[in-house]
Hints:
The complex is a heterodimer.
Chain A lengths: L3 H5 L2 E3 L3 H26 L3 E2 L13 E2 L20 H29 L1 H6 L8 H12 L14 H23 L3 H6 L2 H4 L4 H40 L1 E3 L14
Antiparallel strand pairs in A: 1-4, 2-3
Chain B lengths: L5 H27 L12 H15 L26 H8 L6 E6 L5 E4 H6 L3 E8 L5 E10 H8 L7 E6 L5 E5 H4 L5 E6 L2 E2 L9 E3 L12 E7 L25
Parallel strand pairs in B: 1-10
Antiparallel strand pairs in B: 1-2, 3-4, 4-7, 5-6, 5-10, 7-8, 7-9
Amino acid sequence: xxxxxxxxxxxxxxxxxxxxxxxxxxxxxxxxxxxxxxxxxxxxxxxxxxxxxxxxxxxxxxxxxxxxxxxxxxxxxxxxxxxxxxxxxxxxxxxxxxxxxxxxxxxxxxxxxxxxxxxxxxxxxxxxxxxxxxxxxxxxxxxxxxxxxxxxxxxxxxxxxxxxxxxxxxxxxxxxxxxxxxxxxxxxxxxxxxxxxxxxxxxxxxxxxxxxxxxxxxxxxxxxxxxxxxxxxxxxxxxxxxxxxxxxxxxx
Amino acid sequence: xxxxxxxxxxxxxxxxxxxxxxxxxxxxxxxxxxxxxxxxxxxxxxxxxxxxxxxxxxxxxxxxxxxxxxxxxxxxxxxxxxxxxxxxxxxxxxxxxxxxxxxxxxxxxxxxxxxxxxxxxxxxxxxxxxxxxxxxxxxxxxxxxxxxxxxxxxxxxxxxxxxxxxxxxxxxxxxxxxxxxxxxxxxxxxxxxxxxxxxxxxxxxxxxxxxxxxxxxxxxxxxxxxxxxxxxxxxxxxxxxxxxxxxxxxxx
Lengths: 252, 252
């Protein structure tokens, strides 16, 4: 164990129980959705724009991968059909994600999590403030000690974008593919340009979320994998003693 | 870790008991209001039940999106079906003159309809989209007799809860609840885009269920049975689809 030096530092409360539990439930649901979503795409790896699209129409683009259906011309051998359980797990995970998200949003509104932890402070709501953070990342400078206690401006904007833009968009474009849901709320499909447009946007929003997750994991490693993982599991993080003039410290 | 106080322990215990009791009451109520699908068992049962219950609460009477005739697909895709059995080939050779639809089960007058009998009932047409679970879709005009006209003609028992419908290939069947069976857009389709329904698209008789995905719109219908339970049909899951891990309710 190399944590002795850190254990002597005072540990402060970093993530609330709601944030931690919903974080890991979301992680689980996201990976189930990612894998099953990929499997569903394999049954028809062609994408269209507008209301309709099928093998007799021109696609917007086709993925250069094999399909699990012989009716799709890909030039590859046909893969086994895994669509059934993939769809079941996809929708079950989507429910888990939605219910988890509702708990997270409700609890965060009550606790002031958005206001205190995610909405950037007055002086940091500028492109310049975010640019300064990104420049620091590009220099691969060690994280500011303050970041053990709270998020920087770039993190805040990113998390808000994922929570309030990407997640609602992936949910909306998913529901816009449901023939029953669109029967009651037709505008959810027509506002996007149609069912096939919704499917294509759903695909790209999935990639955006995956990109977020990859950058997020890279950042966790950059900031100190053990300390950040421990914070998201136990809720507590060791912080350096407050020193009037910060001395650059090598994180273990 | 702080030790858990007695008050907290008692409160949590009471909350957990109330939660479990609440869930079991909710489950019982859902069942009596017809919000539990026949394939609610198994690991994907919770997702299936949430989807079906939500759709029945939100979209019970809504109408599937209809499109202007100008949006009818010039290149619809019929998909492939298993090779036709000999009985079908004989009907096809005879121009489907002797095709019959038998209706049995919980009805006052079990009846056998010819295609001419069905055409003598009120005829409706709708321009709706076929959306396959694989992802592709097309729009066509579908012309035929609404299922509710046939059900009214035979006198359905007030205790009926499901309608099961069978293709000439007896292993190909599906079932829907009364909300879909009595829905004005659920039609026994005999025509497509101003002509007879072509064989690849399900001619001479296909049950179109436009609020659900394509696989619920079974082709070559010869038999309908009305029931208060799906327990005695197949594997009791309302269709062969759940055997392949596909959902019974395909409105999504």
